[in-house]
Specification:
Structural class: alpha+beta
Number of strands: 8
Mean pLDDT: 79
Low-confidence stretches: 57-96, 117-122
Oligomer: single chain
Helix content: 40-55%
Distance between the termini: 82 Å
Radius of gyration: 35 Å
Length: 495
């Protein structure tokens, strides 16, 4: 067998999504803010599209999604396209060349105006200084590392230790903890460990309190030392009984510190007020803004569902390009270019309209199945799957998944992600299904009402749920308790 590069021709069948279908799926899956950015990007790339005024939005949106054989903007079925020289209403077509010349003249007038203004109104040195001061005064968030670097130059540290201090600050994470040991820093820099430890002590005196700690124990102790509470019970508990504190072994801590259980309880409350992450205040602001896709409100005895169309640009095909298609003096290349852009624009308008209709139909089916939730709250949420909704709406379940991904619905019970309503069910003794979200909410309520001195075990929660007609396994209760961030019973006990 001869080895080497060979060129072969094979014929295979494969399923490929057309570019238009890919665009339609992207529009369906995009949330409102992302969709707005996509539409604005398309407005910049497609010259035949324009945003319709508020009064014409509904009419133009419907009109531009329909094919009109008499419309010169609609691409003809054959290639021999002979555009008319008049509009459908019989009025003469505007002269595009005259309009173009008018725009060129207006552009030149503006250029002359700005050139004269720049000559007569040159900025002085004082104006430039004010302008630069404005830009320099723009508020920017300060990171923890920047804050520490500024304090190095203001501290009594000798200038010979600044480089070493900056190296230590570079090893402090965003939460304020030193992620390298003194031995590692000493080995990496060739500096004696005693000197590095001395500089680290100076950095640990910086703001915020507890910064530069190597673990949680040292972080809490630094905060108490900063407050002058080295002789307090809280300091002794953190220094000598950190492991017992993590397991909330209060009687063991009381015996070890020779104090009463009530005193230990008060000390633990004070420890809980300390900051376990000193750099939290300097973390970047990653707030995400949410716009609901669907609104649900009551009208009489019925629930009315509406989509949020306020933040989505409403598009239409520009009449200028429709008239340009009817102009007989344009070359075939120009006509073909405009024809393709009009086709792409109409498909985009149709895809946006179809997206809103799909989300609206899915939301209506959700509201139809979850009326008890809207009337009574989360405890009455019913189990529901995407397959059930897809069968009623008449789409595939993957379409439902894309349509509800990252979308939110505003209800009288609050703002919820649309995926929140798709939950598995738990069979009750009466034969009715109950959403696992409702069961989880019920378990949270049971734990919230328990006696702190005698916390409920998972098996006891199983018994309480069985009395309410809900049969559930103990391991399922443990799973839901973990998802609710509720500690085991031995760690919840209050002495």
């Amino acid at each position: 067998m001869v080895q080497g590069l060979q060129l072969r021709q094979t014929l295979t069948q494969s399923l490929v999504l057309a570019p238009q279908l890919q665009q339609s799926l992207a529009l369906l899956q995009a949330p409102t803010l992302e969709l707005k950015a996509l539409v604005e990007q398309e407005l910049q790339q497609n010259p035949v599209l324009e945003e319709a005024p508020a009064a014409d939005q509904v009419e133009d949106a419907l009109k531009d999604t329909k094919a009109d054989p008499n419309d010169p903007a609609e691409p003809p079925a054959d290639l021999d396209f002979d555009p008319a020289t008049t509009k459908n209403d019989g009025e003469p077509v505007d002269d595009f060349q005259v309009e173009f010349d008018r725009l060129v003249q207006l552009d030149q007038e503006w250029r002359d105006h700005f050139s004269q203004t720049s000559i007569t109104q040159r900025s002085t040195a004082e104006d430039e200084e004010r302008r630069q001061f404005m830009f320099d005064s723009l508020v920017a968030e300060t990171s923890l590392q920047q804050m520490l670097l500024e304090q190095i130059r203001e501290s009594p540290l000798p200038q010979t230790d600044w480089a070493l201090a900056e190296m230590i600050v570079g090893n402090i994470d965003d939460y304020g903890y030193l992620k390298a040991t003194v031995e590692e820093l000493a080995a990496g820099t060739g500096t004696p460990a005693e000197r590095i430890d001395s500089v680290l002590r100076a950095i640990q005196a910086f703001e915020p309190a507890g910064v530069g700690a190597r673990d949680l124990r040292e972080c809490l102790m630094l905060q108490l030392e900063r407050a002058g509470r080295q002789d307090s019970l809280e300091y002794r508990i953190i220094r000598d009984f950190m492991q017992a504190l993590g397991r909330r072994r209060i009687p063991e801590i009381a015996r070890g510190t020779d104090t009463e259980v009530d005193e230990v309880q008060d000390a633990l409350e004070n420890i809980a007020k300390l900051e376990p992450r000193p750099g939290r205040a300097y973390l970047p602001d990653d707030d995400h803004f949410i716009l609901p896709e669907v609104f649900v409100h009551r009208s009489g005895d019925d629930w009315v569902v509406t989509t949020n169309n306020e933040h989505i640009p409403h598009l239409r095909i520009s009449n200028t390009y429709k008239d340009l298609m009817s102009h007989g003096e344009n070359s075939p290349e120009v006509k073909n270019y405009i024809r393709e852009k009009i086709r792409a624009g109409k498909f985009l308008i149709k895809s946006l309209h179809q997206r809103q209709e799909t989300i609206l139909n899915i939301a209506r089916e959700i509201v139809k199945r979850q009326k008890d939730f809207l009337d009574k709250g989360v405890a009455h949420l019913k189990p529901m799957t995407m397959v059930q909704v897809a069968e009623v709406v008449g789409v595939h379940e993957t379409t439902v998944s894309r349509a509800v991904s990252g979308k939110y619905i505003q209800t009288p019970q609050g703002l919820f992600e649309m995926k929140y309503f798709f939950t598995a069910g738990i069979q009750t003794e009466s034969g009715d299904g109950m959403s696992n979200t409702s069961v989880k909410d019920m378990i949270a309520e049971i734990f919230a009402r328990e006696d702190g001195g005698h916390p409920l075990s998972d098996q006891e929660v199983v018994r309480i749920l069985k009395e309410r007609g809900i049969v559930i396994a103990r391991r399922t209760v443990a799973k839901y308790r973990t998802e609710l961030n509720i500690l085991p019973s031995n760690l919840r006990k209050v002495y």
